[in-house]
Amino acid sequence: MPFFDVQKRLGINIDQWMTIQSAEQPYRTAARCHAFEKEWIECAHGIGLIRAKKECKIELDDFTECLLRQKTMKRIAAIQKQRKKLIKEGKYTPPPHHMGKDDARP
To answer: Rounded to whole angstroms, how far apart are CA atoms 70 and 36?
Structure first.
């Protein structure tokens, strides 16, 4: 127990807010990964963590990907690498607005 509990004095629970997507969110909008967390909890409910890791692996993987976005970032990096390669080879010319140049406005 901390000597001076800031969270309790301010009436907030940052630990719950940062770890549980299903908790009440600001402005009452669902969290980004709420649906994936709900699927995982429904699958894992009542079977225990060890069995849940095996039997609910698909749901857990989906939830983890939604939170961390590792596959998405890897895919974006591959797309950018291919784009740079095509520009270097001269097979692709990006439009002017992708190069930071303003379009001529009417």
So the answer is: 16
With a threshold of 0.90, does the pTM exceed it? no
Reported as a single tens digit per residue, the pLDDT across 5-32 is 666 777 766 555 445 666 676 777 777 8
Given a contact cutoff of 8 angstroms between Cβ atoms, the answer to whether 97 and 103 are in contact is yes
* pLDDT for 19: 54
Q: Exposed, middle or buried by CB within 10 Å (0-12, 13-18, 19+), for 12?
A: exposed
* 3-state SS string for 11-70: CCCHHHHHHCCCCCCHHHCCCCCHHHHHHHHHHHCCCCHHHHHHHCHHHHHHHHHHHHCH
Q: Check: CB of residue 25 under 8 Å from CB of residue 31.
A: yes
Task: Give the dihedral sign, CA 59/60/61/64.
Answer: positive
Which residue bears the tokens 């770890």? 19
Helix (H, G, I), strand (E, B) or coil at 70: helix
Cα distance between residue 10 and residue 3, in whole Å: 15
For residue 73, what is the DSSP state?
H
